[in-house]
Amino acid sequence: THNLPPGLEYLNQLDQIIIHQQVELLEAILGTETSSKYEIKNHLGQRVYFAVEENGCFDRQLCSPMRAFTIRIADNAGREVIRVIRPLRCNSCCFPCFLQELEVQSPPGTIAGYVVQNWDPFLPKFTIQNQSKEDVLKIIGPYATCGCFEDVDFEVKALNEMTTIGKISKYWSGFVNNVFTNTANFGIQVPVDLDVRIKAVMIGACFLIDLMFFENSLDGL
């Protein structure tokens, strides 16, 4: 473990990661888009990291869910251990030359990997890459991401897209939560022996999927 990026040692023993978006009172009452804050927990509900989105008010109000952002992820001691950077890009299959690409750094300033959207006319598809931009895993979502009173699963697959090794799930949180807030609850399931850097990239992929497919307040209905 001494070769692991500082702060990622804890991910070494996890095969399930829960991401819970905190409710913003102003957003719930007025519908005003505020900077997202997340708690990242283990399967027992114990907080491992805390994440805060950074961007401008203009980006949040006018560019959401395409907005550029930087998400800083800190451990319980307040030390930033992961940085997720998303530039402003297209959110449509009509522009396959300018699709989403997200960079994950751990520690901040050192590349851990990338999440790259793949063009597909029907399915949400992404490739997880390592720090050398070599393909490692695929993420394939369902035809419809607006599940009716049920979870929505994005399958994590081997590069041949035949073997499923995990999933990213958007948990349905109930009618009141989905109608009146944009809060999200996600679960990431991956093999426990997956490289911790790739686990960090999977957390970045979860944030990207949330913004692309579940930003609207009526998601999950």
UniProtKB/TrEMBL annotation:
Transmembrane segments: none
InterPro entries (alphabetical): Scramblase
Lineage: Eukaryota, Metazoa, Chordata, Craniata, Vertebrata
Protein name: Phospholipid scramblase
Job description of the protein: May mediate accelerated ATP-independent bidirectional transbilayer migration of phospholipids upon binding calcium ions that results in a loss of phospholipid asymmetry in the plasma membrane.
Cofactor: Ca(2+)
Keyword annotations: Calcium, Lipoprotein, Palmitate
Pfam families, A to Z: Scramblase
Similarity section: Belongs to the phospholipid scramblase family.
Entry superkingdom: Eukaryota
GO CC aspect terms: plasma membrane
GO molecular function per UniProt: phospholipid scramblase activity
